Structure formats: structure tokens, C-alpha cells
Amino acid sequence: MTTRIAVCPGSFDPVTLGHLDIVRRARSLFDEVVVAVGINAGKAPLLDAETRVRLFTEAVAGQDGVRVVRMPGLLADLCTELGAAAIVKGLRGGADYDAEQPMALMNRHLSGVETVFVTGAPELAHVSSSMVKDVARYGGDIAGLVPPAVSDAVHAAISAPPPKDGRS
Ligand code: PNS
Q1: pLDDT digits over 65-118, tens only?
Q2: What predicted TM-score, i.e. pTM, was given to this entire model?
Q3: Residue 53 has pLDDT above 90, yes or no
Q4: Whose C-alpha lies nearest to ligand 1, atom 5?
Q5: Atom 18 of ligand 1 has which residue's CA nearest to it?
Q6: Which residues contact 58 (CB under 8 A, 6 or more apart)?
Q7: Residue 92 is a catalytic residue
Q8: Measured between alpha carbons, how far is 77 from 111 in angstroms, rounded to an integer?
Q9: Is 168 a catalytic residue?
Q10: Where are the domains of the chain?
Q11: Sign of the C-alpha dihedral, residues 76, 60, 64, 22?
């Protein structure tokens, strides 16, 4: 029997409970889920790629059929390399769809792989990585939005001095 692999891509800066909800839902539909921690050219990350991979790996530890990889290049190329059956992305609302639809078309153009959209848990619809960082920056409580280890890493990164190369 062929193993049907889904790729869940994102920048995951940082992973949130919303992302973990989508990965669980993807795993209920596919034999294996590969979480791909990638580069979004439009965003300057708070956490480096290695930290984002580590935090996601820890967050899914013990979940059978889920693994986390770093994606240094194109999502379409990773999907081809893995023989992925689909890309799975979570939608919180219409704005997410508007952002995701051109990427889904481009990834299908490049690799032939379809994107499957999954509706996340409504109680997590307000949770995004960017809002988590914003809340943390201004002293708000991010427990309940991210796993505890992620909360610690975000607070540490926010209070660290900026790198000398000017990267934020
Ligand atoms: O969580 P994000 O920032 O919305 O994730 C975007 C991400 C990383 C999935 C997207 O930028 C991506 O796929 N980057 C890898 C490079 C790539 O394939 N670019 C073309 C996308 S159509």
C-alpha cells in the first residue's frame, strides 16, 4: 500500500496551538505528515530556522506519523522529492484563503501537487504567529496560544540584543 504523505508548510515563527491543531487534522486524513519549516521571503523571522524546527519537533514529539524538516528552498521541490500526495494548510477565514490561493496555484503549476485547505478549531481562529510575537513584545500573556517551551523561546528572543548584521 502506498503511504500518502501530506506536507504542512509554514514559517512557524513560532509554532502556535493553531498550527498543531492543523497538523493533527492533516494526520487524520493522511498516513504521514511532514511539517516543512520554510523561508517566507516577505518576512524577517524572530527565531532562526534551527530554533523553529526544534520547537516544532518538540511540540509533536510522540505523535506517530508526524515529522519536521527544514525547507531551505521551494515547497514544490520538497513535495516532488517526498512524493507528497498533498499540501495541507489551515484556514482561519477569508483573508487566509486570499493569501493562500495564489500559492496553491503556483505550487500546483510547479509540481502538480494539490493544496487541501482545512478549517481550524474556531477557538484558535484568533491565533497567529505575528500576533503572538506582538502580544509578547508588549508584555502580554501568550500562554494558551503556544506550547510552554515556545513561550520561553519567544520571550528570550525578544529580550536578546539585536544581531550585529541588523537582522530583526
Ligand atoms: O507561514 P507562512 O509564512 O505563511 O509560510 C509561507 C511559506 C514558508 C509556506 C512559503 O513562503 C513557502 O512555501 N516558502 C518556500 C519557498 C517557496 O516555495 N515559495 C513559493 C511559494 S508559492
Answers
A1: 999 999 999 999 999 999 999 999 999 999 999 999 999 999 999 999 999 999
A2: 0.94
A3: yes
A4: 10
A5: 74
A6: 147, 149
A7: yes
A8: 7
A9: no
A10: 5-158
A11: negative
- Over residues 29-51, the mean pLDDT reads 96
Q: What is the mean pLDDT of residues 19-29?
A: 98
- With pLDDT > 70 as the criterion, what percentage of the chain qualifies? 96
Long-range contacts of 118-123 (CB under 8 A, 24+ apart): 118/22, 118/25, 118/26, 118/29, 118/88, 118/89, 118/90, 118/91, 119/90, 119/91, 120/18, 120/21, 120/22, 120/25, 120/90, 120/91, 120/92, 121/18, 121/21
Q: What is the CATH number of domain 5-158?
A: 3.40.50.620
Nearest ligand 1 atom to alpha carbon 76 = 18
Output the CA 129–ligand 1 centroid distance in Å: 14
